[in-house]
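Now for one protein, fold included:
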Amino acid sequence: MESTETNRQNQNVIELSNTSVLSTGINESNTTHGEIHITRDSNDEAEGEDGLLPITKSQFLMLNVALCVGIFMVTLDVIILATAIPTITHEFHSLGDVGWYGSAYLLTQTAFQPTFGKVYNYFNTKWTLLMGIMVFEIGSILCAAATSSPMLICGRAVAGFGAAAIFSGGVNIITMIFPLKHRAPFLGLMGAMIGMAMIVAPPLGGILTDRFSWRWCFWINLPCGGLMVIIIVLFLNQTAQISFGLSWMERIIALDPASALLLVSCITALLISLQWGGERYPWSHPKVLACIITAGILLVAFYAFQSWKGESAMIPTRLLRQRSILGSSLAACFLSMAFHVHSYYLPIYLQAVKGLTAEQSGIQILPYQVTNSLFSLGVGVLVGIVGWYPPFLWLGTLAFVVGSVLFYKLDVDSTVAAVVGYQIIAGAGVGTAINIPHIAVQAISSKKDVSSANAIVFFFHALGGAVGIGIAQNIFSISLQENLPLTVPDMDISAIIDDSSANIRNLIPAEYLAAVLRVYCSSIAKAFIPPIVTASLAFRKRFPLSSHRELASFAYSPSKQISIIDLWKNSTLPLNVSMQS
């Protein structure tokens, strides 16, 4: 029922082409009476892009502002919390819930991203996007006003649901306004916002936490969301509702909410088992086993349901059975697991072990995010030149493995130079490799499958982040429980574990402090073991990843002059969206 181009418009949220924002494809000489006319050619018509909304210059400018603000806001919300977590756990005495603060947001965003791709097919774009913004703002308010850790986690889940709507809506609006050949610059602008948010988030979170309150990490979403609402209401034309002749109930069924609910339930059961197992209960406890068995049953049910749905499934199993697509998806998942663990536990190391403030730790982890973003963009250009991507995956994951091992070796006496140097190595590695799975599926997939294949890789990318944080938190908490009693036998260990990692200097007597810091450092090091494992798995040279030399729509040849604009246009690279990613 849905055409290939409709799928491209609504599902392929990861195809944020890193295209130069200087080349907009808009000819000022073709503007009259304040209205922008974008020249269309026969290729545009061949893509079936009739019915594009006419926009004025003011609409063009304001809608781009709204979309940039929205993408920046939902990406910022993924990472900004990392530097604030020690302060939050001190207030709520909830060190055991650290994994949920990141996973809850990523879980709902991952599960409902494909659903919202379909929502924009069947319901009015303007009001659907406004609804998504309002849901995100409600989630932000719940987080900012949270009086307990469970309330904060619920707020994060609600915000993730709204983020899925905003991300899909941003791409959808661009496809409504611009023909295919003119979309890349504006998608590239969205990609730039993602990179900027990743760099700004750690220091901004630290500054807000130290100088105001960690709650301002969420309050700042309100004016951003309010600006988006005003612009969308005033400048986005009312769009016709596409019902395809279906009733409301038929449209609801077509959204496939059952798949999203099965997936959310499955991952939630898995994360609960990771939180309980070995920490609150033994792994053999009936409650833990029940969660694991439930997760397994729901996973089987989800796969069976996707197989039954066929081409209309959230994750078409036909594509998953292709070894190159499965290999690319697993590589994206493994890399994302490692990246998110580093992003959350480096600030804990800096604040708990090194005694830095939230603001100082946010500044000190900038090298990781900056090198990640720069190498991600640079490799996109290089892949466009050479037209061959496997070496970048191997070299990137090798550097990432080395960086992950170096993180594991961080100790109480590590110097600032060592911490920064390790981040540069790891950031360069993950930045080099993180987008290769997305490129690979575009190179090997047929035109009708490229959107679905990209959506699958994005799905596994985000899923890896949610699960990786949960695994690391389980390892970290169990290590603390096992080793702290041996270090401070006369103290209430539960009070230390439940409090903030950044507050241990106020809890521990001076004669025990050095030993406790070594325990914390050792526990964080153990949390860095999963990134070593997953990065190593992604490095495997026999990973079932296609090695096509001809990439996308062109490969480099000396007789063919290619500008930097062309390279970016043809390298359809998402930035690290975890959402990232």
